[in-house]
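User: Hey, quick favor. My workstation is busy. Could you predict this chain's structure for me?
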Amino acid sequence: MAAMKTRVLSSLSLAGWMLLAAWMAGGCKPAGPPPGGEPAGESAADTKAAEAAGASARPRWVIGMSQCNLNEPWRVQMNADIRAAAEKHPELKVIFKDAQNDTLRQRQHVEEFVSAGVDLLIISPKEAQPLTEPVARAMEAGIPVIVLDRRVLGDRYTCFIGADNRKIGRAAGQWIVQALGGKGKVVELKGLMTSTPGQDRHAGFREAIAGTDIEVIFEADMKWLEPEARKEMESALARFDHIDLVYAHNDPGAHGAWLAARAAGREKEMKFVGIDALPHEGVAYVKQGILDATFQYPTGGAEAIETALRILRGETVPKEITLGSRLFTRENVDQGGVPLP
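Assistant: No problem, here it is.
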């Protein structure tokens, strides 16, 4: 009898230990939801609040940004300015496309944005004429279009944002006339002349030097690219023993010309003037004594996002938004330059 009692107690003890182990193991796991009820520890109100927060975090509007060429530092900065401005508004999502300096690719990008049904399109066109029709088609599809920096032909867009390139070219010409005392031999390295900024920076410059003794002895289209500018400047140096100044339509062009002149040992014989005035580029070149002057051409990135928001909210915006400019020289660069009148 005693032996039987011992065996029963041992069996009970074993069963107890097994129950205790199972209970402890179960205690390490989160409790499942009761049948037909809410998950443990989370009310229906909590669930709805989380869903609402997720919905509010999703963008309300999608913007397509068609950039013509990210091989230009100024355009990299434009995209960065757009991205920084958009990140302040969680209701916006911006999709960027880079045409890599290819007009046909940029046309395709615009068509892709239209097919995708973006809420708004921002485009900085490579060339005016070829991008005019795709922009018009976006408008016909009910998609507002902000044209940034370079124009298209006509007025079938919602808003154009950019500085006055003709005014900047004229200001550059006036500064050059003054710097050279009204006479001298100048090299003009032009931006892409099928783009409106190249045309306007050239026209404004020529207006300013008309009637003076400034002579343009060499001009070439360097397509906004520093390597092209350097190559063209090498040709100018080979042809002309005397050059007083190089006027380039952007700072990479002026810097490329300076590199060519330095390689020839002639960089101290002439002055160099550019346009763009990015802090890490044109302004830095002035501080380093490479450029004598640079004129600011703002990217308009922040203004594009501000204007896009107004359009998407149903507000009326101006057809044209003209951005200001500043002149940076070795005398005023440390004071932040001076605004153009």
